[in-house]
UniProtKB/TrEMBL annotation:
Statement: the UniProt record of this protein carries the keyword Nucleotide-binding: yes
GO biological process terms held by the UniProt record: coenzyme A biosynthetic process
Record function comment: Catalyzes the condensation of (R)-4-phosphopantoate and beta-alanine to 4'-phosphopantothenate in the CoA biosynthesis pathway.
EC number: 6.3.2.36
Family listed: Belongs to the archaeal phosphopantothenate synthetase family.
Pathway entry: Cofactor biosynthesis; coenzyme A biosynthesis
Keyword set includes ATP-binding: yes
Record lineage: Archaea, Methanobacteriati, Methanobacteriota, Stenosarchaea group, Methanomicrobia
Signal peptide: none
Protein name (Swiss-Prot/TrEMBL): 4-phosphopantoate--beta-alanine ligase
Alphabetical list of Pfam families matching this protein: PPS_PS
Length: 243
């Protein structure tokens, strides 16, 4: 029982929810460690969306809106934290939703797909193949899904697959609280923000940007600027907090 007046109430509720999802198999035990790393970086952001991340979310929307074949890749942590937000972004962007896991079993895939469906997402399922040049199970995807995509959104990704997707010529949008991660540095665009905060911002921008604005935002995209701004934001907060 977590008391409502606890200063870290929301964080504790989220942790308890993730622990429950780990017990039921949706989140891997290792996924809990990833969440801890994310929380640490979110502290440095003051647990709120920066202006820079807000702008990056608009660019993400522009990339999704101008894509021919956009796909949202979902893993266990993302499904556990943000199934409803994924469904909302799918509606706003028209992207396909596909499950992709590091710790992959048919049961886990089915469990996560069903959680997403219950939240209102239309999940692209069916026969997966080992199509990506990776030695781990994130190599498994659908030929008419992620393999064919020109733009892939990868919330909470690992750097290997992000790199491979970029090498395949795809535009990769990462959502990652750690601006130093391999994923953040390899992606075409990184939104340095918490996944449940970032997804609704992308959905909102998908619904409001004009076609002309989308083209301009994509043409001006420079991920190094967003990573640098995230670093400056975090360093600034850290030095102020310790004054
Ligand atoms: P890389 O291979 O890219 O260097 P890593 O080994 O740190 O990454 P993982 O352990 O797979 O990657 O963790 C995924 C990333 O997701 C971490 O960088 C973490 O900061 C980030 N992360 C965790 N939870 C969240 C969240 N709720 N919102 C946004 N990012 C998150």
């Amino acid at each position: 029982m977590i008391p409502h007046d606890h200063p870290r109430y929301q964080s504790l509720v989220t942790r308890e929810h993730l622990a429950e999802c780990a017990r039921s198999g949706i989140v891997s035990w290792e996924g809990l460690i990833s969440h801890g790393r994310g929380e640490a970086f979110d502290y440095l952001l003051g647990e709120k969306t920066s202006d820079s991340a807000r702008r990056a979310a608009r660019v993400a929307a522009a990339l999704l809106r101008t894509a021919r074949y956009p796909v949202i890749s979902v893993n266990g942590n993302t499904a556990a934290l943000a199934a409803r937000e994924i469904a909302g972004l799918q509606k706003a962007s028209g992207a396909l939703v596909e499950v992709n896991l590091f710790h992959r079993t048919p049961e886990r895939v089915a469990q996560i797909e069903s959680l997403l469906c219950d939240a209102g997402a239309d999940v692209f399922s069916g026969e997966a193949e080992r199509l990506l040049p990776l030695s781990h199970d994130r190599a498994w995807c659908r030929r008419d899904g992620m393999y064919r995509a020109d733009v892939v959104l990868v919330p909470l990704e690992d750097g290997d697959r992000c790199g491979v997707l970029v090498e395949m010529g795809k535009k990769v949008i990462a959502i990652d609280l750690n601006p130093l991660s391999r994923t953040a540095r390899t992606a075409t665009l990184t939104i340095v923000d918490e996944v449940t905060r970032a997804l609704p911002l992308i959905a909102e921008a998908c619904a409001t940007l004009s076609a002309e604005e989308c083209r301009e935002l994509v043409a001006m995209l420079d991920n190094r600027v967003f990573l640098k701004e995230a670093g400056i934001e975090m360093a600034g907060r850290l030095s102020h907090a310790l004054d």
